[in-house]
Amino acid sequence: MEYEYMLMRNEKETQNRCCGGRVWYRFVAAVPLCVILYVVFAHPPSLGVRWNVCTIVCTLYLQDICGIICAILTWSLILYAEFVVTMVILLPHPYKAYRYINFVIFNTGSFLAFASHLRTMLSDPGAVPKGNATKEMIQQLGYQEGQVFFKCPKCCSIKPERAHHCSVCQRCIRKMDHHCPWINNCVGENNQKFFVLFTFYIAFISIHSIFLAVNQFCLCIKNEWRECSNYSPPATVILLLFLILEALLFAVFTMIMLGTQLNAIWTDETGIEQLKKEEARWVKKSRWKSFQAVFGHFSLAWFSPFTQPLRAKHENYLYSV
Q: Coiled-coil ranges per the record (predicted)?
């Protein structure tokens, strides 16, 4: 197993030397800039602002290059779809009602997709504090003789139930589903809602893009490519074909991801737990309670990337044995 059992006893313990007792040198460059950004932008101070500001810096310093490239590529493809839909399809369209209605629908979906992506990428997925499995911390948590808990040997953390260690982020994540390079972050307990919304809105604007592009093709063929676009016919064909190809790929991919996430919430079992076929040591929630744990009480806020359900503090690391 990737964790080890630790039992509190009365005998004298040595200082925790997990990970060689080394200082996390990768944080040295990030911490000063993180503090500066926090002081400048976090007035009044709040935990949410504090985390979001610091994770911007930590993401740049600590995440893998593949994740950064995928995140930039995601933004670029959204902007490309915005350009083609707005400049090639909607602005030259002869019917104003069609133009304005689809402009509002598509740009609203794009904005929500972009906001959901940022929230997923810059939110704490449920990271367990690194290196907290020390003698001092164990004493502060008030463990009694005979109490048992898990410790991750990779990041020296007291490991909560259903937490897994991410080899990319180098930390344990509560209810970790998977590490996604497209968001350059893990999908876990705290940001699963935003990831679900990201896949939903990307699938939505992808399907909408296919509808608009096919309709534009039909209009151009009907008018023999006269006044159907501000660009030349060859350029218009290339732009529309690439938009359709992009939209098809992302529609299929995000709908599959959306289905797997909804199934994980429905069964109260993360992707890693399903893959490893772990025996459920936790009390499974009902399907409705499981959705409420991710999205909160049912309201329009379910579809908003700017709200997050209130969660209880995670202070219990104990396990019945």
A: none
Asked if pLDDT for residue 269 goes beyond 80, the answer is yes
222 pLDDT above the threshold of 50: yes
3-state secondary structure the chain: CCCEEEECCCCCCCCCCHHHHCCCHHHCCHHHHHHHHHHHHCCCCCHHHHHHHHHHHHHHHHCCHHHHHHHHHHHHHHHHHHHHHHHHHHCCCCCHHHHHHHHHHHHHHHHHHHHHHHHHHHCCCCECCCCCCCHHHHHHCCCCCCCEEEEECCCCEEECCCEEEECCCCEEEECCCEEECCCCEEECCCCHHHHHHHHHHHHHHHHHHHHHHHHHHHHHHHCCCCCCCCCCHHHHHHHHHHHHHHHHHHHHHHHHHHHHHHHHHHHCCCHHHHHHCCCCCCCCCCHHHHHHHHHCCCCHHHHCCCCCCCCCCCCCCECCC
CA 268 from chain centre, in angstroms, equals: 18
What is the reported pTM?
0.76
| Pairwise CA distance, residues 204 & 211, whole Å | 11
Question: What is the residue-averaged pLDDT of the chain?
Answer: 77
User: Catalytic one among 152, 155, 156, 180?
Assistant: 180
- Asked if residue 317 lies in contact with residue 141, where contact means CB atoms within 8 angstroms, the answer is yes
State residue 27's pLDDT score: 39
Cα–Cα distance measured from residue 99 to residue 204, given in angstroms and rounded to the nearest whole number: 18
Per the annotation, the verdict on 218 as an active-site residue is no
Q: What is the per-residue pLDDT for 318?
A: 40
Find the mean pLDDT for residues 257-264: 94
